[in-house]
Amino acid sequence: MSKISKFFKGGSAASKGRGGPSPQEALARLRETEEMLSKKQEYLETRIERELAAARQHGTKNKRAALQALKRKKRYEKQLSQIDGTLSTIEFQREALENSHTNTEVLKNMGYAAQAMKKVHENMDLNKIDDLMQDITEQQDVAQEISDAISNRAAFGDEFDE
């Protein structure tokens, strides 16, 4: 099986058993493709420079060779333009995949936190909590009354009963 058919059919053994590549595998492949296209861009840019130099070198002496160099340059520029468009598409897809992966992780963690909260709250009953809060309020009122009673000045002898 050729590399191209493996690429389009998802030929990796790791991805065949699971029904598709993981986000990390897909991101790695997209980055590899971006890297390969960037190298091809550099190659085409050097070829364009070479053809331009060849056209200048031939100039008016050999018009046919200069025209052929300019035609090749134009073809390379067209290929370069196509690669630019492809790179843009791949970058967009990679960013979308990264965002999707992030959203999936956030959602998983939120579900995990919801389960933890549910587990924490499973032993709590709202009626018991209301009763407990009323008991606490009553005891605070009693404590305040005791505190008020203790803090009032004792009038031992200031007040006489006629």
Automatic annotation (TrEMBL):
Residues 1-24 are annotated as: Disordered. Signal peptide: none annotated. InterPro entries: Snf7_fam (IPR005024). GO terms for biological process: late endosome to vacuole transport via multivesicular body sorting pathway; protein transport; vesicle budding from membrane. It is found in: Cytoplasm, Cytosol; Late endosome membrane. Keywords: Coiled coil, Cytoplasm, Endosome, Membrane, Protein transport, Transport. It is a peripheral membrane protein. The keyword Signal does not apply. GO terms for cellular component: cytoplasmic side of plasma membrane; cytosol; ESCRT III complex; late endosome membrane; multivesicular body. This is CHM4C protein.
